From TrEMBL:
InterPro entries: DUF6017, RepA_N. Pfam families: DUF6017, RepA_N. Residues 15-89 form the Replication initiator A N-terminal domain. Residues 129-158 are annotated as: Disordered. This is DUF6017 domain-containing protein. Residues 170-288 form the DUF6017 domain.
Length: 292
């Protein structure tokens, strides 16, 4: 295929996605992938259209609807890549998703990337608690640019689930909806079709554990405050579940108590996954150096 040159002002006849230079020039965005930066430009373009069409919520904030399928079409990528890119933008505070449940697509709020707003990048995440839930991947402790010591996360946090019904949904139904969204169960079912039964077992276990009224829970032989366990579980994402499924498949020892095994695996997944990948990286680096 032979393409022609641009002559004069011909280049101005076309429409373009605008990606802010700040995403490439400012140190705070240096770990943001190029694909995520591209997606942010696409979402920014869509947001300007939403603003023109008056797509505002009850607080006057502009939102867009941009699903996993939309990301796949826009960037010609697979489910897993599209999911990770949206999560990456959330971790950097560049977008915020409001879960609506009941099969409805999430509302996406494109956040202001400018320096003036960077100081409060994670401070205004509660504006949409009514009718929706916080995404687990929005937690700043999980951001690449905010390295948090896993040993200092043993503290309870408050989540918007109560014993009374909200919007006609019981506490258990709210938790089921939360984990269905935060763990991206539909995507996991497509990626891991052979693990369907285990996936549903994991979701049920997470719901049961987070819905309990007990003050202490036994995890890996130790009694831990239920709020600490709940806090950890509410931060899990699809990557953690895939890691647990992989560990389960590779385990050759008999499992006498599957419930306790899964509880321990889920509770320790963030730390264990990080250490496993770090050890693998160190091993590959060491062997690569030896070959050199």
């Amino acid at each position: 295929m032979t393409l022609d040159y641009f002559y004069g002002q011909a280049g101005e006849l076309f429409s373009f996605y605008r990606i802010p230079k700040a995403l490439f020039q400012e140190p705070r965005f240096q770990n943001l992938s190029t694909d995520a930066k591209t997606l942010y430009g696409i979402l920014l373009d869509r947001m300007s259209l939403s603003a023109k069409n008056g797509w505002l919520d009850e607080q006057g904030l502009v939102f867009i609807i941009f699903t996993i399928e939309d990301v796949k079409r826009a960037l010609c990528c697979a489910d897993n890549k599209a999911t990770k890119l949206l999560r990456e933008l959330e971790e950097f505070g560049l977008i915020e998703r409001k879960r609506r449940g009941l099969g409805k697509p999430s509302l996406v709020y494109v956040k202001n990337f400018s320096a003036e707003s960077s100081k409060s990048i994670f401070q205004n995440r509660d504006f949409h608690d009514s009718g929706g839930f916080k995404s687990a991947s929005q937690d700043p402790a999980k951001s690449r640019c905010n390295k948090t010591d896993e040993n200092n996360t043993e503290k309870s946090e408050t989540y918007p689930f109560y014993s009374e019904e909200e919007d006609g949904m019981s506490k258990r139904e709210q938790l089921e909806e939360y984990f269905s969204q935060s763990l991206e169960v539909d995507t996991l079912l497509r990626l891991c079709p052979d693990d369907e039964d285990t996936l549903y077992q994991i979701v049920d276990l997470l719901v049961d554990t987070c819905a309990t009224n007990r003050k202490m829970l036994r995890i890996a032989g130790d009694d831990k405050p239920a709020e600490v366990v709940r806090s950890r579980f509410m931060k899990l994402n699809a990557d953690h579940i895939q890691f647990v499924l992989k560990c389960l498949a590779e385990n050759s020892s008999p499992i006498r108590n599957m419930k306790q095994y899964l509880l321990a695996s889920l509770y320790n997944a963030p730390t264990t996954m990080q250490l496993t990948y770090q050890n693998r990286t160190n091993h590959d680096f060491a062997h690569g150096s030896q070959r050199g």
